[in-house]
Amino acid sequence: MAEAVARAMTSGEHLLVQAGTGTGKSLGYLVPALLHDRRVVVATATLALQHQLVERDIPALLEAADHVLHKKPSYAVLKGRSNYACLHRIREGVPDEQGALVEMPTGSMGSEVLALRAWAEEQTQVKGNGDRDSAPKHGDKVWRQVSVNHRECLGAAKCPFSDECFAERAKEKAAQSQLIVTNHSLLAIDAIEGVPMIPEYDVVVIDEAHELSARVTQAATDELSVPEVERTARRAQRHVEGMEADDLADAGDALRAAFDECPPGRLDTLPEPLSDAVQLVRDASRALISAFPKESQSDGEGDAGRTQARGAVQELFKNSERMAANSQADVLWLSERDRARGGDQLCVAPLQVWGPLRDRLLAEKTVVLTSATLMLGGDFSSVATSLGLKPSERVDHSLAESPEPAAPDDGRQPWRGIDVGSPFDYARQGILYVAKHLPPPGRDGLGAAQLDEIVDLVDAADGRTLGLFSSRRAAEAAAEAARERLPHLTILAQGEAQLPELARLFVEDPHACLFGTLSLWQGLDVPGDTCQLVLIDRIPFPRPDDPLMSARQKAADQAGGNGFMQVAATHAALLLAQGSGRLIRTTSDKGVVAILDPRLVTARYGGFLRASLPPMWSTTDRSVVLSALKRLAS
Questions:
Q1: Cα dihedral value 109, 112, 116, 121, nearest 10
Q2: What mean pLDDT is predicted for residues 281-306?
Q3: Cα 330 from chain centroid (whole Å)
Q4: Helix axes 272-291, 244-261, angle to 10 degrees
Q5: I need a surface site. Which of 156, 247, 374, 610 has the fewest CB within 10 A?
Q6: Which of 368, 348, 364 is nearest to 356 (CA)?
Q7: CATH homologous superfamily for the domain 426-633
Q8: In this structure, is the dihedral angle defined by the CA atoms of residues 57, 59, 63 and 66, taken in order, positive or negative?
Q9: How far is CA 498 from the centre of its chain?
Q10: What is the residue-wise DSSP string for 478-507?
């Protein structure tokens, strides 16, 4: 892998590397990255991997290689501005609903905010990074009391605390470093949206690359809600002299009335009342931006309340303008939410991200994409296509499939794909069991047959089970049945405590089971005897009413493709591979992946899904699996 990555960095060809759990893939790209003669960016999807790279892998590698390196390469972590504590907000106060700065929130938030303020001041004394990940325990709402986004920031030229600013110091360190570790979202903002966030670089290594499309989509998704419009109008009110803020508040009323008339779900075209209301918000916010007084030299350090209020109006204008355009490149939908969570909101997301990725990232940089799950259906094509690489551009096919040679300036993006294998012997360590005898899953959740199967499998395994379910309702039903029929086992369910606490309890109790939904499919690492059975209740196809997935599937069909296979089956294959990968985490792990959906072996698409899973020994024989689990448990 290291040799292939080094070759890609030198040749400029893009590279996809499937590297199974336990291969040490971070070293496989860090070694050539540190030897490369120009700056390299490493982008990850999860904070856990970012932390692992910066706190463990890179320092260990530099120490081990110290005797062969002529000089010690420098490295830095770079995150979005809202991930760092803001000293101006901490020392000067937070804008209230009218935009006036207030010193301290009231109620239970106060003590947590005080703890964060004290921590931030300590960070300035010890030259710490002021990064949210190293802060005392807190929630999102509390963190917003001590941080700002890029629109709310006064800017280094106006902020009286810019010399101490954590975000500015992180940017300065990154600009002086050979290796920068960042996240997918910041990479998307920098490369695709064209907002300069990362110092100039030559190569980007994208780890957890199976997540890239979803993270880029997430970064490019915007929302519009009535409370946001009202709050923005109130904050702007004290900074403008005319009626423009009142006009924005009136537009919020029109938006509420339009939401009440519009059913939730995907909107192929905006209904006229909703279209009119969104245009009102757009026009009112544009006028309000113009109504803010021009900043003058006499402002000195600047008015933080005004800067942040104006930033909120600009954000509102940007989002409403995008929605009013109703572009074919976007998907619009009305999301139904209860009033406690802010009420309904209008959402917009890109129909596809492969085009921007190809035009603004792949065309400009050399890109190395790596993950444990890049080959779906036994091939790189699905993932490569979703990220902007064409199967016809692959340059390491067999001779019969080799594409015609192309001129270097014709817009082609040559790429290679390699699978560096796994240290695990999946055929000996794991069993893939498909419960072929069960009825296909229905819309009403788990039936009696599925619950009986779950209880029997968990009983045979004597606990030690990770249950991955397609919905919170299914996870709770399975937990309730297991508690009732297997009272001697500990059954933990997602939502009953924070995930780190549930994971700790799961590891500590040899007879525990942990049942949950999507965050467990990808974010849990429990090697050893803790987990010897992974239960999956059904093939994780996207919901039929998922507005973005259904729009992408429809677009693929209209383009002459197979929308189901390109969108729904690919989505399911990726999640199945990730979920099944929770079982074998070391060379000594053993166990069973049990999938309670017979369609995996009876449906035509089942072969594609099975080819995406680790190559375990497979069976549909229930008695064989129960016996194997009992032997493992004993």
A1: 100
A2: 78
A3: 20
A4: 160
A5: 156
A6: 364
A7: P-loop containing nucleotide triphosphate hydrolases (3.40.50.300)
A8: positive
A9: 19
A10: HHHHHHHH-TTSEEEETTSS-HHHHHHHHH
- CA distance linking residue 491 with residue 486, whole number of Å: 9
CA angle in degrees (0–180, nearest 5) for 371-376-377 = 155
What would the DSSP string read from start to end of 399-454?
Answer: GGGPPPP--TTSS---EEEEE---SS-HHHHEEEEE-TTSPPPBTTB--HHHHHHH
pLDDT at 113: 87
Eight-state DSSP code of residue 252: H
Rounded to 5°, angle at Cα 616 from 613 and 622: 105
Amino acid at 529: D
Strands 14-18, 415-419: parallel, antiparallel or unpaired by DSSP? parallel
Write out the two tokens for 251. 């537009």
Helix 244-261, helix 226-237: angle, nearest 10:
170
Do 462 and 633 meet the contact criterion of CB atoms below 8 Å apart?
yes
Question: Token pair of 569, please?
Answer: 């089956």
Positive or negative, the CA dihedral 465, 470, 476, 482 is: negative
Q: Are 325 and 276 in contact (CB under 8 A)?
A: no
Phi and psi at residue 586, to the nearest 5°: -140, 170
Report the distance separating Cα 370 and Cα 15, nearest Å: 8
Kindly report the average pLDDT of the chain as a whole number.
89
Q: Which pLDDT tens digit goes with each residue over 146-157?
A: 998 877 888 888
Give the CATH number of domain 2-74+177-215+353-419: 3.40.50.300
Tokens 């309890």 locate to 505
Interval 394-443: pLDDT, tens:
997 543 344 444 444 568 999 999 999 999 999 999 999 999 999 999 88
| Range(s) of the chain covered by CATH 3.40.50.300 | 2-74+177-215+353-419, 426-633
Instruction: Find, among 471, 420, 427, 463, the residue nearest to 445 by Cα.
Output: 471
Per-residue pLDDT reduced to its tens digit, 264-274: 999 999 999 99
Distance, first Cα to last Cα, the chain: 39
597, 440 contact by CB (below 8 A): yes
Alpha helices by DSSP H, 524-561: 547-558
CA 581-582-587 angle, 5° bins: 80
- Pure H helices in 40-132: 47-52, 58-64, 87-92, 109-125
- CA 154, distance to chain mean position in Å, is 28
